[in-house]
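REQUEST ID: PR-0412
SUBMITTED BY: lab tech R.K.
PRIORITY: routine
TASK: structure prediction, single protein chain
INPUT:
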Amino acid sequence: MAKVIEFTKKSQRPATSHFTPERSGNDFSSVINLKDRAAIKGKGGTSESEILISVVVATSDRPHLLSHCLSSLLWQRFDASRYEIIVVDDRPSSCTRDIVADWALHAKRIGTKVLYLPSCGPHGMAAARNRGWRAARGDVIAFTNDDTAARADWLRNGWETFEQDVQAAWGRVVIPCSTSPDDYEYRRKNQERIEFPGANCFCRKQALEELGGFDERFTLAWREDADLYFRLLARAGRVVHAPSAVMTHPMRPAVWGESLREQRRMQADALLYKKHPALYKQKIRFSHHWDCYLIVAALLSLLVALVQHQAVVAAAAAATWLFFTAWFGFQHFSPAARNASQISEMIVAAVLVPPMAVFWRLIGAVRFRVPFL
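STATUS: complete
OUTPUT:
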């Protein structure tokens, strides 16, 4: 059993009007003020029974990013005694634990609970989030990542979304970037349009219990949130968009060749397709990667023709491969490269991404036994 280290946190922040909804059955719409809350406490209520929202933050060896995230979570315009923060450390380290402890000390004046949960396995975003929500005391679980920053009204606006028939919601993710984004920034910016992103979503704990939480077969930080979203939809639960619940996802510097490393995620797409073929086609991708398969077929034909010394076939295959590789590059990569490094990365990606994408899709198809082509 994982060791649980609990901290009590207090933060210095300006006085705000806190929203503290009072529940009656499944009615989460009524709001009471601080005097009413004091009266409830006077009748025997305790802070242990008053947690409304539990914020689960999964982290993995990124203490400085986590510090910025926790800072934003401690400045919420929400009654501090009515929410808790649970940090699940998927790669336990003393540095991450110390960061959580330091922020906990700043939170002592407001009485919010902070829990640090080291995870020794199973690993992955899905498993970390499951560990977090299962330790939570709130009726609603708010999920985010360690590299985000919440606006001050994020929790309040997310909470107000939960009326009687709402089971889950997702907020708006803002990804700031330059006015002339390079390829990496262009692709990251497109993630603002994702429905139910794991970096900014809310779900009733009861719904998570009934669904079994996140599917831990999604070991990569990819598609585990889409799978939960699709299962919520299949369950006929009401899932709504809460655009006023805003989470900022800062743009971090890209590592050269990032688009190549991302192809490994295609395995998760295979599992998602196997579980939800109709919703996958509707919300993720309707058509197959025919361009990638055509490029790989041309490349294989070229190699076979060269081995068999068929010059005409080799020339035709080479021309086909070159044309569709160039076409793939123009279609899938931003033309805003500004220096030699970015241009060279785009060329390398255009050449290598198609065969790598096909390879990892086939690996996923074999691994999860699904005709995912």
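NOTES: Residues 1-47 have pLDDT under 50 and may be disordered.
REVIEWED BY: pending
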